[in-house]
User: Fold these one by one.
Assistant:
Number 1:
Amino acid sequence: MKNADLPLRFSRTLRFQIGAALLALVVLFTLFSLYTLRMLDEQRAQGVLLRLAGELQATAQHMAMQAMNYAENRPRDNAAYERDLRLYFQDLMGNMRKFDDICKAFSSGDFSRQLQLHEPMKLPLGAATLAAATELELYWKGFMQELRQTLGEADMPHLSEAARLIVENNPSLLQRTRELLQALDDDLRKRARETGLVVRISFAAALVIATGIMFWFYRRVIRPLDRTVQGFREVATGNFSHRLPVESDNELGLLATTFNQTTNRLDTLFRLTAHLQEGSDLDETLEFVAREFPQLLPLDWVGALFVANDGLIQLEGAYSDGKPEQLGILRFPLANTLLQECLENGRPLHIPDIHEVATLNSSYRFLRVLAERHRRDAIFLPVATHGPLPGVLVFATRQPNAYRQAHLELLANLATVITLSFGRTLKLAEHARLAAIGQFITGIAHEIRTPLATVGMALDYFREKALSTAERQRLELAQREMARIDRLLSEVLLYARPLSLKTEKLELCPLLEQALESLAPEAGDAGVKLELQCEGGLQLTADPDRLLQILLNLVKNAIEAAAPETPVTLSAAEEAREVIRIAVHNRGEPIPEARMEQLFEPFFTTRANGTGLGLAIVRRLVEAHGGNIRVDSARERGTTFEVLLPGNPG
């Protein structure tokens, strides 16, 4: 397939080819017009020749008739002779000059004098005509010499002898004149036949050439354009697998190539999206990219790296030359690397010379891994930058300087779709992992609760015994830890089990007061003041126990995050019609932006003794009530968790 980025040679462009075809038509029309003008000139010349030949014959006949009239009516006295001298002799001399001029013109082929032209005009004469003209001229010269000798002196010519000579020689002169006329007529007929044949051949050739140009125009322009229009219609209906045949290397061929590249990219992208929507795992997705993306850009190595909670980035999978590549466990610090730069910028990052760039910084360990595998050029594409597992998709090739601006623009344009689709795969993989963990923990929780109950009974037994102060303290510590373990198991089971609500209509403000009263001792120990702001008359339909659990969890988290001697405010108000807003606010340290999206993910926690399930359970309970939860955190505003719940119609 021709590369759409390469320039076309001018001789192969439609501008040149159509221009050449039009020029050929113009040249053909010009030649035909010139030949037509030449034919018109020849027809005029043929008319001149026939007229002059007719004049020769008419002059010869006139001379014979005048001579016969003179011989029959000879002058009988001097007066009559003088009359004939003025009339017959002058007419005879004029006819002789006229015949002599025309005869010379035929023998020489120059008819300028007869046509009264200033420049010589050569009319084409055939060989037979020239031979007849030459024979006529020779005979005429001899006859004219004899006639002049017979006439004698011009002042007293012998008209009677001259008339007798003319009558005697006229048959021979007429015969030669007729031969000239016949030869000229045969020559002109032959030339007319040849001209007609040339005209027919020229017309046939022009018709063939014009038909050929029209066929070429249809085959090289009309048909490809029609197929291109049909291709766009196919794409408009959603058929991105449609391809156009590339039949030429001109602009239309370039258009077909570009169309095929575009549809190929769209088809690959949509198949990738469909592949990801089917819930494919990471290995299947990498295999698809390794198999299909070489149609879009140079690619013989692809890998996916994910950022872990410990700040390290790990290579989770890679394909080399379309096959899985086992590289073991590769984990690198993310700080001060090009991978970190790629994630922070959120745009594709091009590394044009891996071997050289890898030597610039000791932190570029992943680039050295690529360099060891003889990869020369690479592109880092950030994926799921705001998801639970930020990561980078790496495209690499052995070809130096393989990725051009067009490839970067392609990935930049497709980055959002690829990121969203690939991020969904990562989330599905993470959810599957969490589901497996949850199922495992649920089973473990059930298994642990039985021996824990036995241990609890044993601890209760020792409470009734007389113990020393130190032994009593250890017993109380053990009971508190038993209670914490039991609470943890309860949270795990609550998150893992199907959720059911026992809803009822209730007043909201008393429930908020109950939550603050329950946490007042913890707030006192932390030196935090609890404040309540609740509009009266707020009602909603909810499960009071589950709603109280939401409030206790959010307020307890706020107490732990708040700085000493600062307030924690629990407020409730009508946000909009039939929407109630419950907010918990504290002035503690703000939540980092990078962790905002992970707060509600299960098993994510920043506390050493946290379970990572509190906020996940809160979101699940809020959504079960038909509401949603959001968080806002900034140093100047503090941190606010907002719960929006549907209220009762007023």
Note: The CA atoms of residues 373 and 398 lie 9 Å apart.
Number 2:
Amino acid sequence: MLKTLPFLLFLLATQISWAQQDVPKSLGSTVNSSYQETKPVISPDGNTLFFARQNYPENYAGSNDPQDIYVSEKRNGAWSQARNIGEPLNDKYPNGVSSVTPDGNTMLILNAYNEYGDVLDGASISHRKGGRWQYPQMINIQEFYNLNDYIDYYLANNERTLLLAIETEESFGDQDLYVSFRIDERNWSKPVNLGRQINSAAPEFSPFLAADNKTLFFASYGHNGYGDADIFYSKRLDDSWQNWSKPENLGTDVNTKEFEAYYTIDASGENAYFVTTKGSIAGSKDIYEMTLPYKFRPDPVLLLNGEVVDLASGNRVEAEIEFVNTNNYDKNEAVISNTENGFSHILEKGALYQYLPVKRGYVGILQFQDLTRLSEYLEKEQKLAMLPIAVGSEIPVHHITFVNNADIFRSDAYYELDRFASLLQSNPQMQVEIIGHTAQLPLEAENDRLSYNRAKAVADYFEKKNVHPDRLRIKGAGQKLAFSSNMDVALKNGIELEDRITIKIISMNWEKPKPKDTDEDGIIDIEDDCPTLAGVADNNGCPEITEETKEVLKEALEGIEFELASDVIRAQSLPILDKVVTVMQENPDYKLKISGHTDNQGDDDANLLLSHKRAQATKKYLMDQGIAILRLDAVGYGEMQPIESNDTAEGRAKNRRVEFEIVFD
């Protein structure tokens, strides 16, 4: 028994190896025919195959039609009878699919279609809407030209990178592989040659870039092959698109002395499809499939499928989904999720991704996928949630993060803080309740307090972003409201479902409080020196002081005299004071501040006392004339507030004075 164990292990390993390597197998008569089948493109999920069929009687223009697009679906493991994809993609010209996006709703098509129904050299994009492919729209590639009779394209799954097989003045001979980068919706950069490691003096064509955006398969007549065109593999080594591993022939499992090209694989990296003339029907080009050997497999990726749902109604919503690679915020991507097919998107390994649906009138819920340690191909289904910007919407926010057991923001909290601050700024009539939730601490009262303090920290941040405090209510729910939702939640590692902030919209009709104007004089209280008395702007909101009154006060300032070193008012000053009495009698809202002042001659304390007595003497005279004591205030300042220099007799004379100032409550 012990002697046979090594042999059994060897046999088992050999069988596993044989099973893994697989033998190329024709897709059969539902796809292949005695006519030429070429340019296969497999959808990332592996269930739809697009290809071109040449001079087939069922082509758009019959057997004289050089090439049409056909499609077949995999059903229960078998390929359906291929059908002509029809107009508007097929016409009397050579038609072909170069690539299809992960969601299956966007296709890169050979030829530059124009509005007159003609085609030019180039490529076009077609979108599927309502189950129908739309008329292709020509893309513009800067400084594009091709000196060759043949051309191939491949649009990478990220929809930002375009590979071309063309011949230009910069080619090393015949067709070379080039790369172009997306500028905007319709425009692409000038193609750049991939360099001598990839391109030879002979034709290189049929480029295919795997889902990892690094692994390149292409056909060549120039690298070491077995006869006709062979398929090769190379790996991109950096972001320059000039450094590649040495191209490696896929070997005799794929390549023969006959023609092999147009290698395409699904997102899993397991299943490959290609064109060969070996063993084909009537010696034509046919499409074969096989299991991709491990040594040639691309890096694993995540194929994320799903839909966007209005969490309030449960209905599907068409929205854009924004994906951000947090390792490099320049590598942002966006895809459309429609109500018919949802969305599909490929995420490469090695990064932490954040993403959320975006649509006018809605708020999306932020999600995360950590692929830093992705070791095998994954497919995930996810329902992405949005909530309408409407009263009653309660938006769970898990990624306003805090230091453990504290109300201090973590560094990764500010993306969400700024997103919701922007939401409030963009909706100036929105009023919200900010509710904190946590179960981090052992006691309920402690969680109540911590959750409140966290909610307050969020409100304080919004206030710093110029959100009016009256728009923000604060509540601490502690651990009382457990998180519950029918949406899928993908949180950043280390974040608990119960630790969150809820933004609840409580009003969309908030109005900023009008500034208070108690006396209704058009001057708000905060800027009104007399908020309870109607006044004028020229007097800071206080009642207007007439020019006649100002003249009386000026005359009193200059004309009131006292006996020498005394508080006795000289008789000639009394008529002037009587004019002040008249002003006070005619203006019952007036109050009068009487200030006594001296020069700097003599003792400081004596001067202060004298100024006070003179102010009081003036006040007493006015009281004796019937002016109420509550309307009068008398203060002595001594020599502390001179209005002229005390170095001259003239200046000292002006400093010895009694001032009268009209004041209001």
Note: The first strand starts at residue 25 and ends at 26.
Number 3:
Amino acid sequence: MTLAQNKPSDAAHNGTHHNAQDGDFSASLTRLLRPSSIAVIGGKWAEAVVLSCVEVGFKGDIWPVHPQKDSVAGYKAYPDLAALPAPPDAVFLGVNRKTSIAMVEELSAMGAGGVVAFASGFAEVADGKAYQDALIASAGDMAILGPNCYGMINYLDGALLWPDVHGGEAVDSGVALITQSSNLAINLTMQLGGLPVAYTLTLGNQAMIGMADLIKVVAADERVTAIGLHIEGINDAAAFAEAVHAAKAMGKSILALKAGLSDAAQNMTISHTASLAGGNAASEAFFDAIGVGVVHSIEELLGGLSLLHCFGRIDDPSLMTMSCSGGEASLIADAAMRGDILMPELSDDIASQIKATVNPLVTVSNPFDYHTFDWGDSERLTRTFSACMLAGIGLTALIIDFPKPVLGRSEAWQTAIEALLTASQTTGAKAVVLASMPEGIPHDKARWLMERGIPAMRGFDHSIAAIKSAFHASQDRALLIPAGLSQSDAEPDTYPDTFDEVTSKAMLAKHHVSIPKGDIVKSQDAAIEIAGNRRVVMKAVSSALSHKTELGAVRLNIQGKDMVAEAYNELRQISGDILIEDMIDDGIAELIVGARHDPVVGLYLMLGTGGVMAELLRDTATVMIGLPRHQIKDIVLSLKAGQMLNGWRGQAKGDIEAAIDAIMAIQEVALSHASQIEELEVNPLLVRAEGKGAVAVDALIRMRS
């Protein structure tokens, strides 16, 4: 899936209508999310907000506003806004769109903090844009969440501007959840994994407040331990990247569950780069570049947040598991292998220490099946678990599934998790409880564990994925400034939409990318004269010819007058311009190097094993453009082509440094034309033996119209 770019006709959709650096707006938004006083306006929806605040224990003032009632849910009602004791910090506005506009203007004038605009009928409907524009104009510097928005839940302070059911409770600290789906927000509050939720925030139309704004405010709350996002679309990638960077600087790791497909990402493209990268690749590269961990399911999101809530960050994702079943040990080992999580072998010294704590019949390894000889024996289990934790592995997981609560026979299971807790406290190791099934840890046990700093994880594959995502979310990253997000008239040159191969290579050559020596010919006699008696490549050239091999527009190993004449006459049927170049056939490996513009996140770079087999092999890596040389080199060497360049099975090594030089130059071409370039591709970049260089054998450049 890609990051969808928000559109005016969608529910999410007009972008941010404020200066993100505006101090007044930031203060207004903070008042809205962390209020001391709440005004509720409307009928049954407003009354539900009052009841929610009472249930969770809001200690501030609650001021219902109703022109006909004396009280709402037991609280004194005020006939109008002018009658309120003071400007409220937060307002739930549960009236129709026309009334909402008038009341927002009055609230702004009186100095209210911010508003949850519950009403629909704004930019998400055909006739609603004018109403939304009027709503924002009426707000001034006052923050508006929505419109078309369910609202916000602050479980830390008991402030619930939320008109529906929810499953949370008051907490002292916890994770913040920000979502573009109100129903998903409700579902997330119902989780039974013991994860404490500090905030649940929905966005609605994002007319004024976007996800980046909410990330900044919740990250600044010292009671928030981590942030989880559900993302359908991003309307300002630069602001999003800046908000994430600020949050990470405050020690708040972020996970993102992506959803939604971008229309723009599905447009037809003419390069291999787009089809190889796939619509998801640009968004994955963007998240990786800014240090957001990507999850692909709700289970992974909740599991990863549990890890981050308990540990703050995961710097070492390696795993040791302990179970009293060989079957579970095998399954978790397979899951770790599938999820690319390392389960290191134990040193002889550690294995001996563990061996001394268990029955002589037990084999010590990782994963570790400690059998049931010591089941229910707190002292012996504590010694065994402590010895395992001395291995220095990133996470030590006890695999355990509790019996159904109705059976009432879980004393031995409780003994096991208490032994794990004691071992973790004694050794300082990060301990995890891992159930094979979602139902394997009852809610009361999950809560007991989480309150003591032990993540309660459910399901092997989901948990492995959660560990990996939490690790990625813990990586420090420099601030990313996306390139090429907007077109500019600053570049003086005027370009065609699509360059032919000759023009593309000429632009590359200006940036010191090596290209084959070649000439364009327009007659058979000229072709014979230019080719002489050397071995050449002959190609039909046109800006309309992108995949020349598939179109039969390339002839290799042409030598001699007769072969040149035959090839020319065949290619002449495709194009009037024929390119004749030196035949280069001493390559060690072929790379594909592609830069492409994504309408949401800007320019990204795709590197892979290239040549005519590129799309079949699909051996690629996609990153945001502008990476330093050492990271580019690491990526190249991770490819199958990289193995060949390193001298696969005793073969000659390739000129790796020349290949990296060429990639850095290609990247610079894209960056120097960032506001205009749509895509640039070199395929193949032919890497020759050490000391002989790398040559861009074919190239394509297309500019944005």
Note: The domain at 314-460 is CATH 3.40.50.261 (Rossmann fold).
Number 4:
Amino acid sequence: MNKQIVELKSKASYWQVFRLIFVVLFLYLMGDALFRWDGFRFYATFSEFLPCIALISVLWSIVAAFTAMMIWLPPVIFGRLFQRIGWKIRIENLQVFISTFLLFGLMASIVKRLILPSIKATLQLKIIVFLCAVLAGIFLTWKFLDKFERWAGIIHERITPLVWLFGIWVILSVPLVSYHTWIKPSNIAVSQKISQTTTDNKSRPNIILVTFDTLTARDMSVYGYHRQTTPFISEWAKSGLLFTRLEAATNFTTAATASLMTGKRVWTHQTYQKIGGKPVKSNIENLPLVLKNNGYYTMAFVANPSASVRLLGIADSFDIAPLATEFSAPASLTHIIDKTLYRFFGDKIRLHDWIVKADFISSRFLYLISRDFSITSFPPEKVFKRFLSVIDENPPQPYFAWIHLLPPHSPYLPPLPYMGMYDSSYKLATYKSQIGVKIEPNQYFSMEVQPAVNMLRARYDEFIRYCDKQFEDFIAQLSTRDKLKNTVIILSSDHGESFEHNYFQHGLEHLYEQVTHIPLIIKGPNQTEGRVINDLIEQIDIPTTVLDLANIPVPEWMEGRSLVPLMQGKRLPLRHVFSMNFEKNPSLGHEIIRGTVAVWEDDYKLIHFLEEKESLLFNLKQDPDELNNLFDREPEVSQRLLTLIQKNLKEANERISKGE
């Protein structure tokens, strides 16, 4: 009888702990949901936000159950152990002690992060904080146990309506998630076996477009960088066409690859955010669809989920398009959870990774318990091998393949012998050490952080050297398989990476050359003579060039122009080149009033910030590092280029208002 009473009390005790944890976590989730919605509404509707809330609610309730178990179980185990050895310690005492201990530890962590960030957390300091937490827990348990029990009773009574409210929502969330995951129709291409229904036409070339994520031309030795980061690419380019002045459409992946796959500028395809809406009309106006409709077999091997053909709305235009998760090898618990969530929900629910986002509370706990690692989780050779395995099955020809590799995107973690090649200190050589560098949320860094940023740049350059070797091995494998005789190889990037101007990495409002100047090398079948082409061109010229190489007419909706005349030694009329970032501006038909636009005219470049109504003018020939603002010193050029931006922006907004 006494045993049954103990078991019933244990069950009730767990239920009480769970109720409290459940409500606390869901109150936090409510606040976070309001924060997420403030950004989500920029590119999607509330009907798309609901399944996101439903998924995180189901996952969060599981976390609540697990957390409650971890809080409830230890006191029960220790309480029974103490009873066996004759110590008269109540389970409630242990629960109060553990709760106050954890609360003290949490408060110490908050104080360290927000008030005393400069204090180094040494081992001695951690031991002192731990002992203080233990003593505080013992004192508060002894002093206020009766009050705690009375307060707990009042709290449990008051939270009952919230338990019901949140519980009903979780129950409703299960069918909502199930519908969006397994029932709702979606345009999703899956990794397929090769179909031979396409008629071979070997008179037209196969085209392989290889893009390395976050690869700036300014850190490639083939473009004159002082470190030998691209020895193979430098040699390979000698018998190809090296374009020295290609500018990216924007400074982050999703919008840049949208331009690459549609041939449209950002203000035309209207994909402004990193997980934003699909480009306008992307399901019917995209490069692979034009190729497919003209007899090409189309394949996409994309390792970055931010460039996923599903995210871009062009999955149906590819015959083969494996999930990005096929190309990753998760090295931490966070990445394992992220990969699992993407596999099940990535193409159906936008914020499928809500629970592991860096600014969500659970990700901080996962970060603490995850092991550190020092080698990339997205090795480019894995993507190349997947493509080669398809080629070995003799797909229909001609074919077009887009291979998008995540390196040298951060974290910069090449394997040995590349790690340490340009900085032998081996500092900042792991994932946790790199993300631990103190950079402001707006990606600005102070001069005190510059030495660490320089070291990160060394790691980035080592990563490029590793990518160069993998590209060399890929070309060698194609040659061994005799696949280069009728194949055009195009090497490029989506955008660059910054370690200068106190601006770190990429994205947001800055459009300096570090993030916009990207490589472009084109090599035709059995080409033996190379040439350097110094004409100013832009990213949207690549898809039109692909169509021209395939002898396919370029549709009117593409805004780029073919580079084939330049490849043939002819000239093209000079024209302005644009790059832009509108992350701060809502999409979904909203007028563009926030963001940054850059325009190039010969050697001049103007960067205009829309909200601030400020501009920077540089002469890139005289000032390639963009250190001297000429806006006030050369007013004629400044006004001409500023007027050009305003004119094109006005036309773009008129198209948006008409729903075009």
Note: Residues 206-328+378-573 form a domain with the Alkaline Phosphatase, subunit A fold (CATH 3.40.720.10).
